[in-house]
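ok new one. same drill as before - structure tokens go in, u give me an amino acid for every spot. 386 of them this time. try not to just spam alanines like last time pls lmao
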């Protein structure tokens, strides 16, 4: 499995770069990630928030669904899902989707340089079941509707500009998005049992109002070469986008998506896999598959949202399983990084790092109640590898 150096793209539009550093280091491996000792050691006992963490890490609750965010007058949304962080002067912003249908949308929390919450507010309203999404290099949030013929909405994390639907990016059951500034495209996952993996090629990079939607074409194997073919009708009616191109590769429940230095990773929950595309070589393979774990119990099931850190580690959240966020290291070791106790009817969503890489944000979508009105959004602080 080939891993390279990941230099996080420099954010444009007046904010600073997000997470610099050396990430995927060159190496070749013959198999997907296997269980081992993680870089942060074993998990300790659950803390007061019900979260088990390695030594040196602490957690705090940032917001709870239906309750006022501390220090603000804003009521946090139900069913918090995909999220991302944005530099904001000396502080930062965390944006979070709401997977409610109808009236999904997205909200944001703003932090000072010390991590104090200074405000919270709405950035997107009147949409449906906003699940995951993705951050753009020009500092907007792509909020994706996980409904039949759903839209991608481009939103302003500062809440100053009105959100805009981007129909050219296709109408299907959207899940996540990941921007590739090198090829100037945006990758998109589809949450269907026979979903596809897409890329959107804007006519002008930085403007998502027009462009070409393409779908990945490949064989039925779990590794090989791939290519891209234009989807004739991105509107998806009367023929769905996933069935328009012969030879397009089906994936079982597309979920999270993450780009780094000529590689894109995405997850499929239906078969508990993490896929890896080498965009330079035009090849794909498995970075993780729970059915290919060769010893012990698979540490990661219910594979869902995914993000990366400045060290090259991938952080993958579980929908179900043992409510873990697992880390996959550049040398293909997978281990639990954290575990949420007492919330087995929930799922972990929205993992994203603060701009300096020292804080990890995420949510338990249904919290201890198992209801969308019981969501809890957390922050974990500690000595993350750099």
């Amino acid at each position: 499995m080939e891993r390279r150096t990941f230099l996080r793209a420099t954010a444009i539009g007046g904010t600073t770069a997000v997470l610099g550093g050396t990430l995927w280091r060159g190496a070749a491996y013959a198999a997907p990630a296997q269980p081992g000792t993680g870089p942060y050691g074993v998990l300790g006992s659950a803390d007061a928030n019900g979260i088990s963490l390695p030594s040196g890490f602490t957690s705090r609750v940032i917001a709870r669904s239906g309750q006022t965010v501390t220090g603000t007058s804003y009521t946090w949304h139900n069913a918090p899902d995909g999220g991302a962080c944005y530099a904001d002067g000396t502080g930062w912003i965390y944006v979070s989707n709401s997977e409610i249908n109808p009236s999904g949308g997205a909200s944001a929390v703003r932090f000072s340089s010390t991590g104090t919450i200074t405000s919270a507010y709405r950035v997107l309203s009147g949409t449906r079941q906003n699940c995951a999404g993705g951050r753009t290099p020009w500092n907007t949030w792509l909020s994706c509707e996980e409904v039949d013929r759903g839209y991608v909405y481009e939103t302003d994390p500062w809440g100053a500009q009105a959100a805009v639907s981007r129909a050219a990016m296709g109408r299907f059951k959207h899940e996540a998005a990941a921007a590739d500034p090198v090829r100037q495209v945006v990758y998109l996952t589809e949450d269907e049992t026979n979903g596809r993996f897409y890329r959107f090629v804007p006519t002008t990079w930085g403007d998502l109002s027009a462009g070409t939607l393409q779908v990945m074409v490949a064989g039925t194997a779990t590794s090989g070469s791939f290519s891209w073919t234009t989807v004739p009708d991105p509107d998806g009616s009367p023929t769905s986008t996933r069935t328009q191109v012969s030879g397009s590769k089906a994936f079982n429940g597309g979920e999270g998506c993450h780009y780094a230095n000529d590689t894109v990773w995405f997850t499929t929950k239906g078969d508990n896999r993490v896929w890896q595309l080498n965009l330079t070589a035009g090849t794909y393979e498995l970075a993780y598959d729970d059915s290919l774990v060769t010893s012990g119990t698979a540490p990661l099931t219910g594979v869902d949202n995914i993000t990366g850190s400045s060290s090259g580690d991938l952080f993958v959240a579980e929908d179900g399983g043992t409510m873990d966020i697992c880390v996959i290291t550049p040398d293909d070791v997978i281990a639990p990084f954290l575990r949420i106790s007492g919330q087995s009817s929930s799922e972990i969503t929205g993992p994203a790092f603060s701009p300096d890489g020292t804080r990890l944000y995420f949510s338990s979508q249904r919290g201890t109640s198992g209801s969308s009105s019981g969501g809890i959004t957390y922050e974990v602080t500690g000595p993350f590898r750099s």
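Confidence is low (pLDDT under 50) at residues 1-30. and btw The radius of gyration is 19 Å.
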